[in-house]
Amino acid sequence: xxxxxxxxxxxxxxxxxxxxxxxxxxxxxxxxxxxxxxxxxxxxxxxxxxxxxxxxxxxxxxxxxxxxxxxxxxxxxxxxxxxxxxxxxxxxxxxxxxxxxxxxxxxxxxxxxxxxxxxxxxxxxxxxxxxxxxxxxxxxxxxxxxxxxxxxxxxxxxxxxxxxxxxxxxxxxxxxxxxxxxxxxxxxxxxxxxxxxxxxxxxxxxxxxxxxxxxxxxxxxxxxxxxxxxxxxxxxxxxxxxxxxxxxxxxxxxxxxxxxxxxxxxxxxxxxxxxxxxxxxxxxxxxxxxxxxxxxxxxxxxxxxxxxxxxxxxxxxxxxxxxxxxxxxxxxxxxxxxxxxxxxxxxxxxxxxxxxxxxxxxxxxxxxxxxxxxxxxxxxxxxxxxxxxxxxxxxxxxxxxxxxxxxxxxxxxxxxxxxxxxxxxxxxxxxxxxxxxxxxxxxxxxxxxxxxxxxxxxxxxxxxxxxxxxxxxxxxxxxxxxxxxxxxxxxxxxxxx
Length: 497
Hints:
By secondary structure, the protein is of the alpha/beta class.
């Protein structure tokens, strides 16, 4: 072990082996203190000061309800202007049951032929009994022409390909239960038997999943190409298990489109395989994940992530600047909502004030958290603290952090992508993972379709049914096509007998 001369000079009378041992203990203590600090910091992480989900907080964490949101004067429940969904009587009921008294409640005599002086109506909304399965038999006749002897056969509809098969409607219902309501396969099988009296195996549901995915190929191509030309997109990623191994689920979305993709790699290799960000020239909203920054588009950073990280710094360092910066960002968010919601840019004076205050708070943080001192004789760079790294990041990427107050279309946070990715995490909690890559890719494509049609106000069950009829719904279409020509007969000629 090479001992720095500075250490040797402090112990001129000690034997070299004692000096070496002191130096060894000194380095060991430094490493242990750093490790203890890291572990204590990790132990104090929760959903309010990091990216951990609320479900990981547990039931014993104190101040569970702590939030960065400020209290408002709004009362609980629906706000003024909110469109309610109160059950109201229908002017055209399907059935009418009249309840007339038979005898007088006073004298007990018959009321037959009595005069009706008032009528009170009450309506009950209920479901009819589950329909029984309808079996339609398709028969193709082959006829011989009396003039030329040519044989002409009727062609089965395009969706009738097997001697026995399930129809598009029951396929849509099963896909709806499994991929939208996230009912496990076994319970979906039970639901199908309980509702319709039909026994469908879990293997059949897997086949339906792959079949639906194949029919959504036009949708996938459309959404991938459309996202490349959007003015602003949201990006996020999370880990999933496929074949027992860690894979990565990437989401790219807008308020109208959602695109999921399963990749073996998390970084640029996986992103390039998706093919959206490499060609994207607009604004990408995301956290500070480094691979996103490798692409030449404009970057805007999630304010919610920054607020949680600042709260962590405030709790660990007890310094004042993180709290002040949190208040400044929240104030900037409120100013944006006040001006941009009306389509008006923020006044330059106010913009300059926000920028100046931001710079001052970052500088205060840098002064209170200087870079670590390089230890003499120690190889490599000394590791920076989380606080120092955050400050340098906020200083370097200031334009992306404050882009939301400069551009009308840029939101404060990346909640749109996080909401989309949360539904796939629900899927993972139910299934635990995917047994094979092909099924994982099929499910992500189906979820892309379902998320997109929900954003566009389309009924999920009908859009899935339309996809099974080879006509997936795509934003921009006025309506889904009909299939009046499904029974079209195509003739084929054979040679004379």
